[in-house]
Amino acid sequence: MVYTFHKYWTDSTEAVIRPYLDFRDRYRVPIWLGESGENTDGWIREFVKVLEKNEVGWAFWPYKKINGTSSFVSWAKPPYWDEIMAYARTPGNLGDTERRIAARPSVEHARAAFAGLLEAIELRHCTTNTGYLQALGLTVPERQGE
Fold this sequence. Notes:
This protein is of the alpha/beta class.
């Protein structure tokens, strides 16, 4: 058994993880940073040092960003994606059915957006975020064809 915690947008100091270290020591159990990332390469580099110095296992978000650098790779936003996101953000509940229906993208745009997403996330279409990988202390692989 491992006790896990998540950390985002904090200082990259030991003080931030001190409560978890104290818990680990008090109960003599392993701890794991099960989710983190969403920050600058510099923050990630410093936080990994703090975690490893304190023998805390870690996992950072690996593969999730459209047009972002705080992940292993990123990809371009597919056509009509803004329509999908606008619809997803449309507030509503069962009483707002008509407004939600009016806000949704056309079937053609929705299909094109998701087909575009499936193509865009293929590794061959992605951009490797070298700084992010280096901040994690990982070796940046050479990709074939580059």
